[in-house]
Amino acid sequence: MPHIHIKITEEGVTAKEKAQLIEGATKLLEDVLNKNRNTTFVTIEEVPTDNWGIGGEQVTKLRKKAKKEAKKKSK
User: Fold this and answer.
1) How far apart (Å, rounded) are the C-alpha atoms in residues 2 and 47?
2) Does pTM top 0.90 for this prediction?
3) Is residue 48 among the annotated active site residues?
4) Domain spans of the chain, in order of start
5) Could you give the C-alpha distances from 66 to 14, 69, 70, in angstroms and in order?
6) Of these residues, 1, 2, 34, 42, which one is catalytic?
7) Which of 4, 22, 30, 45 is the residue whose CA sits 20 to 30 A from 36?
8) If you average pLDDT over residues 25-46, what whole number do you get?
9) Looking at domain 3-74, which CATH architecture does it have?
10) What is the 3-state secondary structure (H, E, C) of the chain?
C-alpha cells in the first residue's frame, strides 16, 4: 500500500492540476514499481510560502525579489 505525499507551495494550484498530479504519481508507481493503483494513496499538502524556505529565505520574499528583478529587466 504505497503512499505518496506531495508538498507544494500554496500558490493557486487548481483542482485540475491536483488531479493530474494524483493520476501521474499513481501511474508512475504502477509503471515503475508494478504497484496496484487501487491501493496507492496520494496526498497533496499545500504549504504557505511564508512557511517554506530556500537558502535561508522565505519563498514569499524570494518571489517578491524575483518580481522586482523581472520588472527591472523589462524596462
Assistant:
1) 22
2) no
3) no
4) 3-74
5) 23, 5, 6
6) 2
7) 45
8) 98
9) 2-Layer Sandwich (3.30)
10) CCEEEEEEECCCCCHHHHHHHHHHHHHHHHHHHCCCHHHCEEEEEEECHHHCEECCEEHHHHHHHHHHHHHHHHC
